[in-house]
Amino acid sequence: MRKLNIKNVALAVTIAVTAAGCGKFLDVNESPNQPLVADVKLLLPSGQAATAHVLSNQFGITGGIWAQYWTQNPFSSQYRNNDRYNLQPSTSNNSWAILYAGALQDYKRVIENAGSLTQHAAIAYVMKAYTYQMITDAWGDVPVKDALNEGVSLNIPYQSQKVVYDSIQLWLDRGLAMLNPASPNKVGSEDVVFQGNINQWIRFANTLKLRAYLRISAIDGTRAEAGVRALAGKPLLASSAMIQYATSGGNENPLFSEILGLGRTQNLVASNTFLDAMKENNDPRLAQLYTKVTWDGVEDTIVGGPQGDFGSSPDFDYSYPSAATGGLGADNNSALAPVVLISEAESYFLQAEARARGWFTTGSAQTLFNDGITASFEANKIGSEAAAYIASAPDAQWPGTLADQVKAIITQKYYAMNGWQTFEAWTEWRRTGYPDFFTLSVNQRLGGKFPVRLPYPETEANTNGSFKDVKHRPNSERLWWDIAE
C-alpha cells in the first residue's frame, strides 16, 4: 500500500467526460500502434483510485447506512433517502459512470497497451474482476460483453449475474497466470495498493476468488465447493489490501472528501443497531470506531440513535464515526483513513468459513475465526485486548454446528468491517442473513422490507436500448445469489 498520488481531478475528468457523452478518458490512445509506457503507468493507479472512490464514497455511505453502522443525523439531511430505503435511479448515475467510464476503461487500456509490461496487465485483470464484483453485487445483471467498446452500439446487452460471476473467475485466472514475481518488467510505486509487490497480488487474487466462490455458496454450492477446494494450499492475504490517502492536494479519503464537499456537515452518526450489539459483548473496538460524548451527565459515552429516526429532535449529542474510518467531518485526520479492498480480518474469516464447511481440509476453523478477530483488534490499534475479548464475549465463542459457526463468522466479520468495508458488510448480510439483529428504519418507505440492491442509474434507462431487458426494479428485489431467509 502507499499514499495516493493520483489527483482526484482524474475522477472529475471522468465524470465531466461521461456527462459530455464521450467515452475517452484522458485521451491516452492517440497512437494505439505505439502505446507509451507512461500511459499504462498512469492508467493503472487512475483505475485503482476510481474503484476505491466509489467503494468508499457512494457505495461506502449507502453500505454504512444499510449495514446499520450509521444513520442520518437528525440535525442535517443529506442521506435521509438512504435511511428511508428510497434511493432513486439518478443517485446511481455517478457511481456507474466512474466505474464503467473510469475504472474499467482504465483497466481495459492497461491490458490492451501493456506490451512488455505484463505485470501491469495482470494487476489490471485482477482489479477488473474486483470492480465487476462490486458492480454486480450492487445492481445484479449488468453489461459485460461490449460494455467497454466505446461507440459500438447504444444497445449494450445485460449479462446475468451468474455470467458476471463466471467472468470474474475467468479474469482472475488470467491475472494469476500472468502474475510473476520474477518478471524483469517490474511494477513500481504507480501501483497504489501494493507498490508492485507481485506476491501480494497473487494472494489478493486468490483471496478474491475465495470471496467470489463463497458468495455463490447458497445458489450454486457445487460450483462454490469445487472452486474453494481448488484454492487449497494457495497463498492468501495475511495483511490488508488498501490504499492510503493524504491530508491535502485532492488526495483525501473519498468519504471525507464527500464530507468536505458538504461543508463538513456531520450527516453520519452512530446507529443503535451496531452499538447495542457491541455493548452486549463489552467490545473495546467501539471506542475506536466512534467519538465520545457526554450523555445524561456521564462523560466519555458513546451514544447512537434508532436507525432512520431522523425526524426526532434529541436534546443531546450523538456519537460520530471516528476519524480512523474517515467519517468525522471536524477532524482533518479523517483524510488519512484508508480505503480497504480486502482486509486481513476478512481473509481469515473467509478461510474460517471455507474450513467450517469442510471445503478446506487443513487448519482449524476456530483458529482462523480467532485470527480474524485478532486482526480486527490490531487494525483498531488495540491488539493486546483481543485475547480477553475472545475468552469472554458471547459473540466470540465458537459454536458446535455448521449453521451456528457460519453465523458466528459472519457476525464477527460484520463487527470487523465497520467503517472500512461497509458495502461488503451489507453484501454479506444479504448473502447469509447475518447479523440477524437488523431493525427496520423508523422512516422506511419500502413496505416493511429491507433494501437489497441499488437502483439502476437513470442514465442507463435513457441511453441504453437494452435497458428494457432489466428495467427499474424495487430496492427490495433480491439478487441472484441472495437467497438468505
UniProtKB/TrEMBL annotation:
Pfam families: SusD-like_2. Gene3D superfamilies: 1.25.40.390. Keywords: Lipoprotein, Signal. Residues 1-19 form the signal peptide. The keyword Isomerase does not apply. The keyword tRNA processing does not apply. SUPFAM superfamilies: TPR-like. This is SusD/RagB family nutrient-binding outer membrane lipoprotein. It comes from Chitinophaga caseinilytica. The lineage of its organism: Bacteria, Pseudomonadati, Bacteroidota, Chitinophagia, Chitinophagales.
